[in-house]
Design brief:
The protein has a single domain, classed as Rossmann fold, CATH 3.40.50. 40% of the residues lie in helices and 23% in strands. The chain has seven helices and eleven strands. Helix 1 crosses helix 6 and helix 3 crosses helix 4. The structure holds NADP nicotinamide-adenine-dinucleotide phosphate (NAP). The site of NADP nicotinamide-adenine-dinucleotide phosphate has 24 residues, from helix 1, helix 4 and strand 7.
Length: 217
């Protein structure tokens, strides 16, 4: 299978690329700094250099063309309102447009729990981020693509456990980036999971079993 990852150098994107390559998939993606070429090459990936803010949908479509699946895992990391809008918002709609231009149907979006950290009374920048992510979910869910929206809870870099809790509604806790990437890889190879919003947290169910349960529902 050929997978194109927007945000391939990110915490989740890079882990996903590594897992997919180890499993024998072809992986491409969008990255913005030539300094990252060596790290990508080290896992056997030759990706496409470009900035999500300035790239035209047609150029992104050219880079994606021939892929079976798109994964959007880019994020501005709470940089500023403008960058959140440009990456987490318009970056998604641009990627949807590019996928359509390239004739690619399958599209995974890494999103966030809309009710993340309600109890913490987060600042206005965080609320804006949550609002932009929700609008991106809506844009993808209204498209005619074969989409899956995956909402991980708060991300940690601790080594993966191989077990998760996955479902249409979960309590927002924490989850390891390794486990998010492994879940995405499993979902990518499970075409029966389609047009679903899934929430993902730490848990005790082995990843293949958790994804298998979703695919049979
Ligand atoms: N942090 C959390 O607890 C949390 C919880 C739930 C969901 N999420 C969401 O999960 C997703 C992935 O998280 P993560 O930890 O993997 O994020 P990350 O490590 O910050 O990765 C973000 C990726 O987006 C890329 N990117 C940013 N601006 C770009 C641009 N202008 N052009 C091209 N690429 C650009 C980054 O490239 P560079 O390497 O060049 O920066 C990087 O590859 C994000 O959408 C985030 O909102 C996060």
């Amino acid at each position: 299978m050929k997978i194109f990852i927007v945000g391939i150098t990110g915490g989740i994107g890079f882990r996903l690329a590594r897992i997919l390559k180890l499993g024998g998939d072809e992986v491409n993606g969008l990255y913005r700094s030539p300094n990252q070429t060596k790290a990508l090459n080290s896992i056997g990936v030759t990706a496409t250099l470009g900035d999500l803010v300035s790239i035209e949908p047609r150029q992104l479509a050219d880079a994606m063309r021939g892929s079976d699946t798109i994964v959007f895992s880019a994020g501005a990391g709470g940089d500023s309102h403008a960058m959140t809008k440009a990456i987490d918002g318009e970056g998604v709609t641009k990627s949807i447009a590019a996928a359509k231009l390239a004739g690619i149907k399958r599209f995974f979006l890494v999103s966030v729990f809309p009710e993340a950290w309600r109890e913490r009374h987060m600042d206005e920048g965080f609320e804006h981020y949550i609002m932009v992510k929700k609008q991106a979910d809506i844009a993808l869910s209204k498209s005619d693509l074969d989409w899956v929206i995956l909402r991980p809870s708060a991300l940690k870099n601790d080594p993966g456990t191989g077990t998760i809790s996955l479902g249409v509604a979960q309590i927002h806790t924490e989850v390891r980036r390794d486990d998010v990437a492994a879940t995405l890889a499993e979902l990518i190879h499970t075409p029966a999971v389609s047009r679903k919003i899934l929430e993902l947290t730490e848990g005790s169910t082995p990843i293949p079993k958790a994804v298998g349960t979703i695919s049979s529902n």
